[in-house]
Amino acid sequence: MADYKDIIASCKDQKGGIIEAFHALQQEFNYIPREALTEAARVFGISEAQAYGVATFYSYLSVEKRGKYIIRMCESAPCHVAGADELLKAIEKELSIKVGETTSDGKFTLELTECVGQCQATPVITINSEPLFNVTAEVLPQVLSAYK
Amino acid sequence: MAEEMRVLLEYADKINPEIADEYVKIGGYVGLEKARKMDPNDLIQEVRSSGLRGRGGAGFNAGMKWSFVPKNAEIKYVVCNLDEGEPGTYKDRIICEKNAQALLEGMAICGAAIDSNQGYIYCRGEYPFIVKLLKNAIKSAKELGALGDFNIEVRMGAGAYVCGEETALIESIEGHRGEPRFKPPFPGVAGLWGVPTVVNNVETFACLPSILTNGAAWFAGIGAAKYPGTKVLTLTGDTNNPTYFEVPTDYILRDVIYKLGGGVKGGKKLKAVQVGGTSGAFIPESNLDTPIDFDSMGAIGAALGSGAVFVMDETRDIVDIVSRISKFFEHESCGKCNPCREGTFRCREIMEKINSGKATQKDIDNILLLSRVMKKAALCGLGQAAPIPIESTIKHFADEYARKIV
Amino acid sequence: MITLTINGKEIQVPKGTMVLDACQQAGADIPTLCYDPDLRLAGSCRMCVVEAKGRPNLMAACVSPAENGMVIETESPDVVESRKIILELLLARHKLECHTCERDGSCKLQDYCYRYGVTDSRYLNEMPHFSKEDPNPFIKRDYDKCIMCTKCVRVCEEITGAQAINVEDRGHHAKISTVFDGKLADSTCVFCGQCVMVCPVGALTSKVSAGKGRSYQTQSVLTTCTYCGTGCTFELNVKDDHVVGVTSVRDSELSPVNKGALCVKGRFGWDFIESEDRLTTPLIKENGELRPASWDEALDFAANKIKEIKAKNGPDALALFSSARATNEENYLAQKLFRAAIGTNNVDHCARL
Amino acid sequence: MTNSINELEKDATAVFLIGTNTTENHPIIGYKIRKNVRYNGAKLIVADPRNIELADIADVYLQFRPGTDVALVNAMMNVIITEGLDAKDFIANRTENYEQVAEVVKKYTPEYAAEICGVDAEDIRKAARIYATAERGSICYAMGVTQHSTGTDNVKTMCNLALLTGNLGKAGTGVNPLRGQNNVQGACDMGALPVSYPAYQAVTNPDIRAKFEKAWGVPLSPNNGLTIPDVVNKAHHGEIKGLMVFGENPMVSDPDITHVSESLDNLELLIVQDIFLTETAMKADVVFPGVTFAEKNGTFSNTERRVQRVRQAITPKGDAHPDWQIICELSNRLGYPMNYSSPEEIFEEIRTVTPSYAGINYQRIDNTGIHWPCPNEEHPGTPILHGEKFNRGLGLFHAIEFKEPYELPDAEYPLILSTGRSLFHYHTGTMTRRSSALNEFMPSNVVQINPETAAALNIVDNEKVKLVTRRGSIEVNAQVTEMVPAGVVFTFFHFSEAAANILTQAEVFDPVAKIPEYKVSAARIDKI
């Protein structure tokens, strides 16, 4: 695993780029580890409390450990009418977790999201930001099996 | 007239948007070259007289917006809003995927007009692949020398609808919580890092190359007189053809749904259509013959907004959908101002109560009162717009509510 | 100068004046919760909204510059309706325990609800549960009373510069927290209590003063701090002849050095005054033990001994360590005592220590 | 302070902090400086052996070896002169003796001083340039500069630096000692000093003495009195027989407490007037119960010379008396009548013999205090000294050579020990140790040790250790922290049960100011 200090340092020339650094950290760790947040605050010249405020503001950033794959289920109106609720229930059942939880093997974390801008093929889920289209309860096990 | 008119998307899928050279071969970067030779004042005037109005939501004349930027400021920024978060909207993504170079060229034209050599594109966190595409496109354009000394940096959001609001977007680029600022000062005077900043939407910038190439009069002659040009729409919901279209702005809503969209899915009847994203008003069938331009939409209490067109068939439960929409706003409120932070929360509570059949007329009265206060007292557009779906459905679909209350 | 009309009254203000100040100049009392003239503007509580003719929405007076020709109403039906609803929304998230709240009687939420006749909230339903015990001896944090004005965040950042707290999360989940929502003691907090000073409600209160008296039960006496040499001024809160707290004076005339800002010692280090250990009677040493004595006895004892030494060894066998804690008047008298009454210049104090 | 506190928030464009842990010991001043740096872009130079909070936001942080202040500042002057950054007009018009200083600092090249101070030569250059090129540069210092055997030299060197750059007499400039006690300025102003009457009027000057003899109606001693260390020593030798200690606690605050204790035990008469039974009061023959600031009226003069009101809020506890009344009673019994009806009446007398206070009265300072000098009732007070000219006319440069501290580390005592204050306590702890919240938060002393030093000694955080010097030892918990550099340890003097001043030296003082060398003692740490 890359060192969080190097990851943060690679973003330091972007003025105000702490969110970029958070993205880069999440690329590696899937969340923002505490010591990395402290380091990022230092590098970007803001307080830890401020950095924490930023990290907790955005729904795609997390300061809590998450699984290897983050499944985000879109809930916005176009997906809602396309059956998002049913799909969500199917995912919860399939993985035996509720929204916000991580599977016991640390593989999947399930989150809700608002519109991901792929409304040509609803309902949509994303796995680690990759959109998957027209997902139904029937195809779900097959879709998830592609993620090891 | 029921045809698409493709200006921005004319060469969709015919060129690789990441390769500047391909864009040049179809006449790209001619507009920028022309702009660079013009006096900045004349350039601003040219854009102004084209009648181009912001495609982001507020519909402000782009040239006019630029003219507010103080000439004497040493540093100025051009910022592109690619945070399209309105549910049902993905037209900026399409424009980037099909014609990213036009966006870059448009930003550089704006740079020439306001004397700025630094641009930022703020791309929503849901589109990491667009960030990659844009970075490649910028690299290619820089290597070709097409952008001259104009530089563009791409920054990625991280899941916050409110960052589509221009001052929240600026805060986010600065590395802060994406909370909107109060205005004035407007970004044109004090924006990114406190210096004058023009913030326009992807689609607005992408219109500029053709305006410069073909002339302001050409553009002004397309579509609605007061909101000229074309508009990229995305059709979602109960439609037979859930995809994007580019149409002139005098195109009417009925044609979007029935001609381009091929009608309501399953041959059902239409109950409602919501235009402009999830903050838009619900439009009943009776208003379908309205042109989509900004002012015509405004006249029926709706808004063109992002150009999302969400179709709901006769079987849809309006209260359930609005209840879901109220959850969206609760989730996306930044929490800075009281009317929005508390209001969106209570709106969701009341909508869920109505939806579950436990509410009374008193609850409807309470939510209408709350909506009125949010609209007039919230700090930014999010809190002001959040009650619109509620109000418009209580107005146009009262029977749907009446059915659910005790 | 620009001219504007406020509640039918025409007034002139310098360009750049905010509507809030113009309203105040026109005699209109505008309610505010997030506004603080010493802090960066937030414009977020929206209590100060006023109606400007010709504008579609209400404007927040604190962040809106006055413009020439503006016509403003500060208590129009729309304005009053908005303020009432905002108050109801805040009441719906505010743990109502005025009966035991330290800030009962000095709470802005209470004051404004009273002013606008807001008795309860039609939006009362789910309540937030943000409060948890913060084990520090100085500041009680009860965020179930917090109304999110963020003055504490701004004062911590801008006046003290400790930057210990910020808004965490967003929307209705937003709350004030330290990094990773930890204890204040583990943060960069220096317990200056500036946050307590600016909190408009009972979300942040002094643990040292808790239960000792509310604002309407106490008298305030302006004085100067007894600790370091900065010379901060503050008010001692007095109830039944006991000091029960320290509060800030924000007025720069009355608090020229600190403008209400204090440090942990000034704000929370006052209860030594009421300590059980205080000396309350003169003492005389007898057989190696100090025993209580009357003033006459103690003073006579001291005076006689001084006279004796002076007679035997001369005045320079006597010395005074005066006090850098005592007043000018006392130091003057003390040195005068030794110089004029005893006759020695053996006078010093601990300026070097 | 030559200048006022609020200038540090608004006017200063560069601030040079040396030997002051401002945010802990003068928090409000520290906050103002931080605000100026963060929001107005003021430059900040911090010189301190400890990595204090403000070092985090400093443009240059000089973590120099304790006691090498003169070498450091001489080198800054060397840079300023070499690079032509000195204020030539100011030097020519308003100062004298420049040449001597220029000559002395020649050898203090940044490289030479860097060797002595243990800092980077380039940082000395940077610091010098920032301070010298600032439009308005302010020097602030505290006990970190003065509590040395070379304290007076250190202070004079700061003055040299200000004179060299013309940073005096304007808003945001000056040489600003931050004084540690609420009324240490006032006590000095009031003549609680062995060599001067109120307003620093020399007791040895016959004209002045005549003035005071007239005012007070008795003949006065023509001889300078004794300083506290001299009194303690002479009590030890039996020459001082009687001592009155008023609101002081030398059994905690003074160097080498064992020595102090012996001295006090040797007295025929010890009178203590205080609010608590302090460690000193326990030794007294007679104790007068005084009152706190909350129980009396009067005035304090703060570090910027602002005279402010103290107001009585409650009646004195029990049978305690306001201190001024006790002194009057005692004086009356000594046959020298003092009959004042109020502190205000005393203040009216002060004005008549204290020219710098002559224009101040209780009405004028009812709301806002006034900075002395204030010679008459029309005078607005003087926030900034030395505007047009210095008291003596021209500003005098003093050529100062660097001298090592008295007690340097050696094989037996390899560490440098400095003592000082915590944010959470005050002085001898008489008040703060009895403030419930403060004492709960910080109930006991610690010794700060650098992780490297701690590792070498096999000591872990929170471990109880024995801190030893040639005078004695205390047992304290180790606080392993980067705040102190390797080889330096720091402890607080507030705690009588683990009193830092058991460890400090009573035989070493600055020869002029008689200030003890609290900032440098040779020490060692033993495991327990």
Q: Brief overview, please?
A:
The complex is a heterotetramer of chains A (148), B (406), C (353) and D (528). Chain A has 148 residues and is an alpha+beta fold.
Share of β-strand residues of chain D: 15-25%
What is the mean predicted local confidence, pLDDT of chain C?
97
Q: Tell me the number of structural domains of chain C.
A: 4
- What strand line-up does the widest sheet of chain D have? 16-20-17-19-18-21
Greatest chain-chain contact: C-D, 112 and 150 residues
Query: How many discrete structural domains of chain D?
Result: 3
**Strand runs of chain C, count:** 16
Secondary-structure element series of chain C? EEHEEEHHEHEEHEEEEHEEHEHE
Given as residue ranges, the uncertain stretches of chain D (5+ residues, pLDDT < 50) are: none
Read across the widest sheet of chain C, the strand sequence of neighbours is: 2-1-5-3-4
Structure keywords:
heterotetramer, C: Ubiquitin-like (UB roll), Alpha-Beta Plaits, D: 528 residues, alpha/beta, Dimethylsulfoxide Reductase, domain 2, Rossmann fold, Barwin-like endoglucanases, 19 helices
List the helices and strands and how they pair.
The complex is a heterotetramer of chains A (148), B (406), C (353) and D (528).
Chain A: H1 4-9, H2 18-29, H3 34-43, H4 48-57, E1 69-74, H5 77-81, H6 84-95, E2 108-113, E3 125-127, E4 130-132, H7 140-145
Parallel strand pairs in A: 1-2
Antiparallel strand pairs in A: 1-3, 3-4
Chain B: H1 20-25, H2 30-37, H3 40-49, H4 62-67, E1 77-82, H5 91-114, E2 118-123, H6 128-144, E3 151-156, H7 166-173, E4 197-201, H8 202-214, H9 216-220, E5 223-224, E6 227-228, E7 230-237, E8 244-248, H10 253-260, E9 270-275, E10 282-284, H11 294-299, E11 308-313, H12 318-332, H13 338-355, H14 361-377, H15 381-385, H16 388-396, H17 398-404
Parallel strand pairs in B: 1-2, 1-4, 2-3, 7-11
Antiparallel strand pairs in B: 5-6, 7-8, 9-10, 9-11
Helix pairs in contact in B: 2-5, 2-8, 3-5, 5-6, 5-8, 12-13, 13-14, 14-16, 16-17
Chain D: H1 7-10, E1 14-18, H2 22-25, H3 27-40, E2 43-47, E3 60-62, H4 69-82, H5 88-94, E4 95-96, H6 98-105, H7 110-117, H8 121-133, E5 137-141, H9 143-146, H10 151-165, E6 175-177, H11 184-189, E7 196-197, E8 201-202, H12 206-216, H13 228-237, E9 242-246, H14 250-253, H15 257-265, E10 269-274, E11 286-289, E12 298-301, E13 306-310, H16 323-333, H17 343-353, E14 370-371, E15 395-396, E16 415-420, H18 436-441, E17 446-449, H19 451-456, E18 464-468, E19 473-480, E20 488-492, E21 521-527
Parallel strand pairs in D: 1-2, 1-5, 2-3, 4-15, 5-6, 9-10, 10-11, 16-20, 17-19
Antiparallel strand pairs in D: 7-8, 12-13, 13-14, 16-21, 17-20, 18-19, 18-21
